[in-house]
Amino acid sequence: MNNLMDKCCDKCTHEPAAPCKDYIKCRKEGPICHQDEACKQKRADFLAAIHLPEQSAKRNVLICAGTGCVSSGSPKLRKKLEEELAANGLADKVTITTTGCHGFCEQGPLMIVEPHKTFYTRVTEDDVAEIVASDLVKGETVERLLYKDPNTGEAAKTYETVPFYARQQRLVLHNCGHINPEDISEYIANDGYSGFARALLELTPDQVVEEVKTSGLRGRGGGGFPTGMKWGFVRQAQGDKKYVVCNADEGDPGAFMDRSVLEGDPHAVLEGMMICGYAVGADEGYLYVRAEYPLAIQRLKIAIAQAEEKGILGDNILNSGFNFHLKIKAGAGAFVCGEETALLTSIEGNRGMPRVRPPFPAQSGLWGKPTCLNNVETFANVPQILRNSGAWYASMGTEKSKGTKIFALTGKVNNTGLVEVPMGISMRDIIFAIGGGIQDGKKFKAVQIGGPSGGCLPDELLDLPVDYDSLISAGAMMGSGGLVVMDETTCMVDVARFFLTFTQSESCGKCTPCREGTTRMLEILTRICNGEGKMEDIDTLERLGRVVKNTALCGLGQTCPNPILSTLRYFKDEYIAHIQDKRCPAGACSALLTYVIDPEKCKGCGKCLRSCPAGAITGEKKQPHVIDAAKCIKCGSCLMGCKFEAIIKA
């Protein structure tokens, strides 16, 4: 391998130009022609040195092994498939690849048969024999297992024709669901580590930082701070020791973006961190992953071990003189540790609580040393930027929000799952074109974007472009990527209470505005939902929200009032209805509900009477029944059990 490092290239001005015994010094001090054939050859030699695998000509069956599909039984599918292939004499003709998350979690377990890319959904062990006999033996598609559009009923045969995927632009997720995350050779075969090769062999650290700046990549963890600028700060910081830290402490309710990337393409995150380490001058990195992600941690451990075995990670990487080591820190699950200074405090072995800034981590971070901290999605973008150039990445998205963004699409939408879309796409396209619209034909009401600290946006903002600045101006935020869709049955006051309940319980209690402010706001919201609110509560909520937003110590406290302030901004009429009319327009707040039986629809079947735990329903057989409001505990069991729709909310 020494021949890889003899000199930078023929145009290196450092003396002596050839042979150069100090390659790192030569590359830093002498300019390099990035298109020079010698540079290109060095990258080719680098990739050859880590053994690019030969592509198999066999047919291939991809089985999703992300957390969602694993919980639905996908590991059993592989065993059954192996048995059926052996029984049909196909064991040597068909390969099986267990992959990471495809994103379409509600349709899992998922299976794709290559090369014709037939996409099968909700596959069970009982379906495997038919897939082998029909698809793999006869070449006939098993139609009943294809995805069918909930609105049109049309079947999609291939992966690309499924509407859920057709409108996405999968950059970070391009490998997820298509390669084995536990096999480094598959990552390398798909251009893996070529971005690191370009950085290490062709660019100076400063040039890497400039490339990232040119891309316009902004941090995907919530705040949207320019990534290249942060890297530049750490590079310029003085210190004999620097760190790179990946924030994989994904604590938002319903969010699983980072988990899926770590499970489906862990080497992309490692490569991004290695590029960052080279750029900022760090030789050590930490992946802070919450302990509730055991599969992600397992695959990261495998990826790190494989990279070390290949010589891509460790000391004197491929004799370049660059050293980089990675460690995994399992977090205990505190939501506040998603805040960068609290995360660093936790890695140091202390209780995760935020620190006063400045100094910022770029100057004084982990153990007081300059630290570059980005989240999983941010690091996973970096290899493609170095592979294809910053200008290429900057060509996607909007003027101030470049590239793509991953969202966990959940709630009252037909197609739930993980989606990656270009910045600037409208909310309408995400919810209706990709998400397939609202479940059960109900009316769209609002979308909550940005996790528990995000804002709730109404239907009149469905055409709002999804980018950092537009969302902030609308009272929401990009956040890490949670996106919850709500329909007409959702009470917006109760939604604000739900998210504030979460952030209030997760507050570390260090600063008074967050500790006391969230508690007082939650008390007021609870009173309103119970029909005990006063009109002055609205003004109090707005005032408290602004105070907490402006004075809390960290991002958790500063953003936790967003659900309240945004619902007051767009759905104030619901607050007024709860307070003045003692009525929940959505019929969701049980304290404000009264259940009554429509005598014209009631058949006297007695099912509601038998299901009522409070004995509040009386009536003779085949005669209209009656609910005693004084005894009714408003559990809703009668409503759910009535097949005649005779019970209504009043």
Structure in words:
InterPro entries: 4Fe4S_Fe-S-bd (IPR017896), 4Fe4S_Fe_S_CS (IPR017900), NADH-UbQ_OxRdtase_51kDa_CS (IPR001949), Nuo51_FMN-bd (IPR011538), Nuo51_FMN-bd_sf (IPR037225), Nuop51_4Fe4S-bd (IPR019575), Nuop51_4Fe4S-bd_sf (IPR037207), Thioredoxin-like_sf (IPR036249). Residues 593-622, 623-650 form the 4Fe-4S ferredoxin-type domain. Belongs to the complex I 51 kDa subunit family. This is NAD-reducing hydrogenase subunit HoxF. It is a single chain. The protein is an alpha/beta fold. The protein folds into six domains: 2-49, no CATH class; 59-166, 3-Layer(aba) Sandwich (Glutaredoxin); 193-394, Rossmann fold (3-Layer(aba) Sandwich), CATH 3.40.50; 404-490, Ubiquitin-like (UB roll), CATH 3.10.20.600; 493-580, Up-down Bundle (de novo design (two linked rop proteins)), CATH 1.20.1440.230; 594-649, Alpha-Beta Plaits, CATH 3.30.70. It has 26 helices and 19 strands. Helix 9 (205-215) runs antiparallel to helix 10 and helix 21 crosses helix 23. The longest helix has 18 residues, at 512-529. It is globular and about 90 Å long.
Quick rundown:
With 650 residues, the chain is α/β, with parallel strands linked by helices. The protein has 26 helices and 19 strands.
Topology of this structure?
Elements: H1 23-29, H2 37-49, E1 59-64, H3 67-71, H4 74-87, E2 94-99, E3 111-114, E4 118-120, H5 125-138, E5 147-148, E6 155-156, H6 163-166, H7 184-189, H8 194-202, H9 205-215, H10 227-236, E7 243-248, H11 257-264, H12 266-280, E8 284-290, H13 294-310, E9 325-331, H14 340-347, E10 371-375, H15 376-388, H16 390-394, E11 404-411, E12 417-422, H17 427-434, E13 444-449, E14 455-458, H18 468-473, E15 482-487, H19 492-506, H20 512-529, H21 536-551, H22 555-559, H23 562-570, H24 572-580, E16 595-597, H25 607-611, E17 617-618, E18 626-627, H26 637-641, E19 647-649
Parallel strand pairs: 1-2, 7-8, 7-10, 8-9, 11-15
Antiparallel strand pairs: 1-3, 3-4, 5-6, 11-12, 13-14, 13-15, 16-19, 17-18
Keywords: 4Fe-4S, Homeobox, Iron, Iron-sulfur, Metal-binding
GO molecular function, one term: 4 iron, 4 sulfur cluster binding
Protein name: NAD-reducing hydrogenase subunit HoxF
